[in-house]
Amino acid sequence: MRDTRESRxxxxxxxxxxxxxxxxxxxxGEDSPVDGARHAAATVFGPVENGVASAVNPVGNxxxxxxxxxxxxxxxxxxxxENTELKxxxxxxxxxxxxxxxxxxxxxxxxxxxxxIKGAEVIAIGAAQGFSWTITIDVGAKDGIMRDMTVLNGDGxxxxxTTVGPxxxxxxxxxxxxxxxxxxMESSDELGFATGQGDRPLSVQLLNGKAKxxxxxxxxxxxxxxxxxxxxxxxxxxxxxxxxxxxDLTRTLYVRPFVGFTKLDLVGVVVEAPRQDPRDTVxxxxxxxxxxxxxxxxxxxxxxxxxxxxxxxxxxNPDANADPDPNxxPDPNxxxxxDDQE
Length: 342
Hints:
By secondary structure, the protein is α+β, with helices and mostly antiparallel strands. The chain has helices at residues 5-28, 35-56, 75-90, 94-113, 305-316, 334-341, and strands at residues 116-125, 134-137, 150-152, 157-164, 169-173, 180-185, 191-197, 200-206, 218-221, 235-242, 251-257, 266-272.
């Protein structure tokens, strides 16, 4: 296209239309008028993204080994068997060993919380569907994925499913400014709401402004009605800063999420919620500080110390131990007095 006045006007018009659609989409929320178009785009481009990811990643198809988790009573055994098979298929190079460790962590989290999950691989990152912090995963409606399902990995809460296509889904990450999740403090059970802040720590508003909170305290998801969009007990993050309450009804905390949102690879979509709230059981044990060793120095005296001490005392006063002279006259006037008496 030639650089003419008409082409520039057309470019400006297209940009204006794009901003207008984004504004309408954001204000519309779940009832957005462009939701149908977004779903259609996911239907058309989802298989393309999935095909590209499968072509460039030799282990992409191996994730299918953990897609289906069986009945509740034997789910853990099935996952362990599939995990073993997947390890054998992944090989032994450094990258694959790292992915195996990541898969192990995710399956351990799912087992601890009794979550039934569908394993998935991240095949795209970006704002393709109009969100700031999103990922596209290679499972969709044909795999049983539905909107508003919780997504986790081996570290904790990743996000929630927002758009579902036939073979792919879009996940809104927990650090997105439009993301909010109910939280519960470990041990104290204080409730709050966590909101994403991009690459900064999550902002958490506690409902109790007088709650006793300190750095290092941890949070999990509180859970939602009918477990959508969030199941309970998923680790969220650790408190890194506490704002003073100042008598306010609420209190603000800043929480470092457990999940690294810039290096996501394998994730799990929770398709079956636990029968009971796992509460804090999914959190890893707290690390104990290493005690500082105390060094005690004991001085052992030399076996010749007493002898040397006595020797030094003798040489210090040479006349102290001398024998007395038998002819010595202690009183110089004694003889004189005797002569006068004679």
